[in-house]
Design goal:
alpha+beta, 5-stranded antiparallel β-sheet, 25% helix, 32% strand, binds zinc ion
Length: 148
């Protein structure tokens, strides 16, 4: 598994704490972690699996450290990203995407799905029903079927 030198956290370390009362200010292994971010809350609600290719997010890594100024004190918080490993041993970031483009359907609720960065890049701003008809998705579905 190819992993950068960034700090890694397991699913079991992070998932149970997402959205909990203390989620905005957890300290794990010495890192202040923001666990109430929009993406993390959606991963907890929707799961860790790409809705197109089925890739699973299997670990978290530190994305970037942010410094916030609050009451003259610098508060450091660290954002986490979810990663999967594909069958070619590539590290793929897991994202949350709009099922229908927000630009065209701003009023839609529950308009999110989990998607790996590869699939998300191919989807661009297509509505899901159009994306599902692309050759990219058809090839992905064929690859999934061939595993069975
Ligand atoms: Zn995918």
């Amino acid at each position: 598994m190819v992993v950068s030198d960034k700090k890694i956290f397991s699913i079991g370390q992070i998932f149970p704490l997402i959205g909990e009362a203390n989620g905005a200010n957890n300290i794990i292994d010495g890192y202040h972690l923001s666990l109430n971010t929009f993406n993390l809350l959606l991963f907890k609600k929707l799961g860790r699996t790409c809705c197109i290719c089925g890739l699973n997010g299997i670990f978290f890594a530190i994305n970037k450290e942010q410094s916030k100024f609050r009451k003259n004190k610098i508060k450091k918080s660290t954002r986490l990203t979810l990663w999967g490993i594909d069958n070619r041993d590539r590290k793929i970031k897991m994202t949350v995407d709009h099922i229908m483009p927000k630009s065209r359907y701003p009023e839609l609720k529950n308009n999110f799905c989990v998607m790996c960065k590869d699939c998300n890049n191919h989807k661009r701003d297509l509505p899901m029903n159009e994306f599902l008809n692309t050759n990219y998705v058809k090839n992905k579905l064929q690859q999934k079927v061939s595993y069975i």
